[in-house]
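anyone else get weird line breaks when pasting these?? whatever heres mine. first is seq + tokens for prot A
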Amino acid sequence: MKAVVQRVKKTTLTVEDRTISEIPFGLTVFLGVKNGDTKAQADYLVKKIANLRVFEDENGKMNLSVKDVGGEVLLVSQFTLYGDCSHGNRPSFTLAERPEYAQPLYEYAVNALKEQGVTVKKGVFGADMQISQHNDGPVTILLEA
């Protein structure tokens, strides 16, 4: 399982010109599920995301988590994180988990983040989503489990 975590000032997710989710500030997280991933990998990433200290404290040091600053998380399923371009220029997605197995793990991660005390918004699994975000920093962290 892989997550790209971006600190944002605002993110809006739309599907077919309709706003589905929006966060005023916090983290936009793109989550990729790989073949064979389990709840254990999701639990590891969720704990990391909820406690990742990427927000500045009163001294300007990245020392606070999204929970500490009252931010929100927009969690977006992103199978293309497992695009393999090692054999040409067209990505192969054979490492990405099939939707019928990936979606329950994605939903599990959403609920697990909520259990960590984080306000979570989500995308629409499998939809053609349009995401507009105002990155903060920019701060981008890659996490893998």
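and prot B, same format (seq, then tokens)
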Amino acid sequence: MENGYSSWKSTVAWNQEIPHYYGDYVRSLFIAMAVLSFVVMPLWGDLLPLGIIPQVGASLLLVLLAGLTSARNLPLMIANATVSAVSVVLLESFAVLLHHTQSTQLFLAREAGVLLMLGALYFSVKTLRGMFTGKIGHQDSPLEFDETAEPIVPSHPSMPFDPIE
């Protein structure tokens, strides 16, 4: 401990991940989806045929969520999973419904968006699972499922020692 500061380092770098936290992947997929949307719009048309303003707003929402994503924010990870799921439903619906009336490039761009959002949904749900089980930031133990091993968590968490001993 130097100058009163601990030597703890942030583990959000790509090579040092927080166990059970996949927000960095969600962040990357959201940014990729926003870029795809902004590139496709002027070339082939709207990914979401709801108008320009909703599509730009949806892309900005993805960037906003990407910037705010954190391993400590449960409501934000729920929002990430919800936005990903709604995006998959909307993009795939429009891809299937409009695939005969619009260009093949636009269809393929929507399908690429669906794949990006499916990935974001998957990693958001994995992170939510880690949050709900209290495993974010904790390494798995090979003894976790061994019934003969000593319990990792004491039976009475409020008592730091066993009073019988």
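btw re prot B: Residues 88 and 118 are 6 Å apart (CA to CA). The radius of gyration is 22 Å.
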